[in-house]
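We modelled the chain as a single entity of 519 amino acids. Its sequence is:
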Amino acid sequence: MKAKLAIVTLLGLTACNLVLAQNEPAAAAAPPTPTVIAAPPAAEPAPPPPSALASGAVIPLIQFQDVPLTTAIENLARQAGINYILDPKVGYGQPDEKGQMRTQPNISIRWENLTAEQALTALITTYGLQIVDDPKSKIARVTIKDPAAAEPLETRVIQLKYTSPTNIIGAVQTSLTDKRSKVMADIRTSQLVVSATEKEQDAVSKLVEQLDTITKQVLIEAKLVETSQNPQTIKGINWAGTLEAQKVSYGNNNQNKPVSDEESTLQPNASLWPKMIMQGGSFNPATAFLNADGLSATLSFLNQSADSKVIATPRAVTLDNEPADLSVTRAQPIFKTTAGTQGSPGGSEVTYTNLGVILNVTPRISANNYVNLHVIPEVSRVSGIARKVVAGTINEADIYDIRKVETRVMIPSGNTLVMGGLVSDGTTTGNVKVPVLGDIPWIGLLFRQDSKKREQSNLIIFITPTIVEDTDFHVSKSDYLKTSPDLVQPDKAWSAWDEGTPKDWSNKGSNNPDSPVFQ
């Protein structure tokens, strides 16, 4: 309907020009008039005023045949709803600097599917003219365009739909060739403010349209299985308590002999050691003593076994080329102790480290529905405690077992990647025997102890990346935001048996319906 109205409007303007030409004197030559093809049927309603097309309606056909330039400008400006004035510098019909009359060119054009504003801009640009807007008076000025003048800058605001302004601003900046042009990002509203020439603005719009697309997502499903076996066996008799550190002393001795700090640390009951007392026959008082520890042996005949299995199944959805961290960990405290000095008391500081299963995956969607994965699995735990004496002080610290691997693979979407090889297997054997006696057949078993320990662990990782399609999303209906808080059902009141506050008996027996008894 808008196209038909536009055609009718152009026909009306053409008819007016024809009438004015017929009323002029015969001696004067009738000026050529614009012609519009594709006339509407006679049954169409009366055309609206030209201002109705100022909204940018597309006109199917615009044609001028041997029409003065100013006449074409007037008709197109009226169609576009632009108030304008012709700059005297244009000077058609007036002498120029050399005294010669400036003749106005006649134009013949035929354009299809353009707005009146687009046609007007193309027309005046072709003939070295330009439109300068006046924001105060709202009247544009058609004047001569300076060939040496730089192309004016336009400022446009581009609303981004999917991407972040920080991700696209670099690409937009490289497409601007004019040194005056610039682009700024508004992070809050995800918009780009571009100040550039008209040609650059068109190039920026096409570039943003190509880059501002929906980012695909990838579902990361992982399963980490860790198994460990720690069997241990100890068999035999250990005579280390008797034969490893016997202490023999000779000299004056008694049951209440004080011991040194080192002896008291190693053996709290050193002052009560059992004694073998040898007294010289003629010495009086007794002065010769031979002291030794008592008889001590450890019998072991035991097998131990410890098996464990840890399974973690984290799952997450991440954007294409964005990292996803999947972790099942426990925060392990680390104590940092500072010794005190003169005038400064000591103290301790606690920091934490995460131990457990940590999986870092960065997917990148490739062609043919393949997914390029950057995988970093890590499994860590506390394996023991290390002790070290520093400046006479025993310090303890945890020992961590960390298994980590980093790799890049490419697999089809929906397929499973199996990662293994993180195997730890260690065997420890130990033998303790009494020399000579431990080598005697059969009897030597009473003077020998054998031990064996094995620590084995295996980690297997399964990773399945799946490209998320639009059909995988489902709308979940919820009326939570539409529900008034008054409609929320309150919790059931507690009985007098469970309630902590005493019951109010002040209105007991009252006939008042508003009393709590009736409520």
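As a brief sanity check on the tokenised model: Helices lie at 2-22, 69-80, 116-126, 165-174, 198-211, 240-243, 261-266. The longest strand covers residues 370-390.
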